[in-house]
């Protein structure tokens, strides 16, 4: 059976509710606290939408993976095709590549991220897969493998196409991957300027509006098409905490910049990171069957850190859950229970609880006493014939 115990200590330490709900102007938004793995906002987060240039993050991911597994190096050069150059001529964001150029992987990374170059994305696609169409198929296949369930790709750049779709949740999860899996490459997202061969000083600046605000922003990507409106995937780190957010459907670049800052401010000001239980602190005791001790202490292996909403009210619960009684022998450090903490308005938080000490099997007298008590209970509980 499942036994549920309330820990008074944990309840005392966590006594808050989320702040007032944030009303975003975005048509779709997903906000995630990376440090505690907590979804702070989900407004149409799983809707499959045109991602515009934000889908370049998947092209960047594919190139980062190629670097990581050694298929290319930073000094590898790619050819620039007429197809790639055609995107400069068609308008939109560009790195201003020309046929005959041999940009390096390092230059193309900067061109995709800082200049949002459609031409750079096509060069990468053709350099890795031969054609942009083949690369788009690989992008879709890789997205599925990464759990990006609402992502399909028709091209490498985010150029408008009915087959180019991503959800805000997928964009957020992909951003977390870029941050955590490629720590040596990710800092490019925070760079503010790149001007390939000094061809376009006016297009050399990173479009991320948060980078100049000194709020800890270090990525990731803006996007805009007539169909998608103005969108952005952002990341901000302050102290121990990092948030990632993805928004879509803004009506202007000014509104996008304002909404991105509002979301970052809300995420950091309405929630505080607190240590609610220290590593090794006994949360509860679990009953033990046939052991040389009747109970064993339950402790977390690491500090339990949670986001605590700014407004303190009643309504939060903490439970210790295990199947019991636990049967001896029990090894110290074995995972035997879970601490389940529920904050209204946020997903429940589960923490593994470990046995605080070894519990050996009881000796002969312990087993005899236990058997006698069990027989007595069965006898007393048997109705008369």
From TrEMBL:
Pathway: Cell wall biogenesis; peptidoglycan biosynthesis. SMART domains: PBP5_C. Its EC number is 3.4.16.4. It holds the Pfam family PBP5_C. It catalyses: Preferential cleavage: (Ac)2-L-Lys-D-Ala-|-D-Ala. Also transpeptidation of peptidyl-alanyl moieties that are N-acyl substituents of D-alanine. Residues 1-21 form the signal peptide. One of its GO terms (molecular function) is carboxypeptidase activity. Residues 271-361 form the Peptidase S11 D-Ala-D-Ala carboxypeptidase A C-terminal domain. PANTHER family: D-ALANYL-D-ALANINE CARBOXYPEPTIDASE, TRAFFICKING PROTEIN PARTICLE COMPLEX SUBUNIT 12. The keyword Protein biosynthesis does not apply. InterPro entries: Beta-lactam/transpept-like, Peniciliin-bd_prot_C_sf, Peptidase_S11, Peptidase_S11_C, Peptidase_S11_C_sf, Peptidase_S11_N. It comes from the Bacteria. Removes C-terminal D-alanyl residues from sugar-peptide cell wall precursors. Coiled coil: none annotated. This is serine-type D-Ala-D-Ala carboxypeptidase. Belongs to the peptidase S11 family. It comes from Cypionkella sinensis. It is an enzyme of class 3 (hydrolase). Keywords: Carboxypeptidase, Cell shape, Cell wall biogenesis/degradation, Hydrolase, Peptidoglycan synthesis, Protease, Signal.
């Amino acid at each position: 059976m499942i036994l549920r115990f309330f820990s008074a200590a944990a309840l005392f330490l966590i006594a808050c509710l989320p702040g007032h709900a944030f009303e975003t102007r975005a048509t779709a938004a997903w906000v995630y606290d990376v440090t505690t793995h907590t979804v702070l906002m989900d407004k149409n987060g799983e809707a499959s939408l045109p991602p515009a240039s934000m889908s370049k993050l998947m092209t960047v991911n594919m190139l980062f993976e190629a670097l990581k597994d050694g298929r290319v190096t930073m000094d590898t050069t790619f050819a620039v095709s007429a197809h790639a150059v055609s995107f400069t001529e068609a308008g939109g964001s560009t790195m201003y590549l020309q046929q005959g150029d041999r940009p390096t992987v390092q230059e193309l990374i900067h061109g995709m991220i800082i200049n949002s170059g459609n031409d750079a994305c096509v060069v990468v696609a053709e350099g890795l897969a031969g054609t942009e169409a083949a690369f788009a198929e690989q992008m879709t296949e890789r997205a599925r493998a990464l759990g990006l369930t609402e992502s399909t790709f028709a091209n490498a750049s985010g150029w408008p196409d009915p087959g180019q779709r991503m959800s805000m949740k997928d964009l957020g999860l992909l951003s977390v991957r870029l941050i955590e899996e490629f720590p040596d490459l990710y800092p490019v997202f925070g760079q503010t300027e790149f001007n390939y061969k000094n061809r376009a000083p006016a297009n050399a600046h990173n479009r991320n509006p948060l980078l100049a605000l000194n709020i800890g922003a270090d990525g990731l990507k803006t996007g805009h098409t007539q169909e998608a409106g103005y969108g952005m995937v952002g990341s901000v780190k302050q102290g121990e905490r990092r948030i990632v957010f993805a928004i879509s459907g803004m009506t202007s670049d000014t509104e996008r910049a304002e909404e991105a800052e509002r979301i970052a401010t809300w995420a950091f000001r309405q929630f505080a990171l607190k240590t609610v239980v220290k590593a090794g602190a006994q949360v509860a005791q679990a009953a033990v069957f046939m052991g040389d001790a009747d109970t064993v202490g339950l402790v977390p292996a690491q500090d339990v850190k949670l986001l605590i909403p700014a407004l303190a009210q009643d309504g939060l619960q903490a439970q210790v859950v295990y199947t019991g009684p636990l049967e001896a022998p029990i090894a110290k450090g074995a995972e035997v229970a879970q601490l389940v903490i529920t904050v209204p308005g946020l997903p429940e938080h589960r923490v593994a609880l470990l046995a605080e000490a070894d519990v050996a099997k009881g000796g002969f007298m312990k087993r005899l006493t236990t058997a006698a008590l069990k027989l007595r209970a069965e006898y007393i509980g048997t109705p008369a014939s």
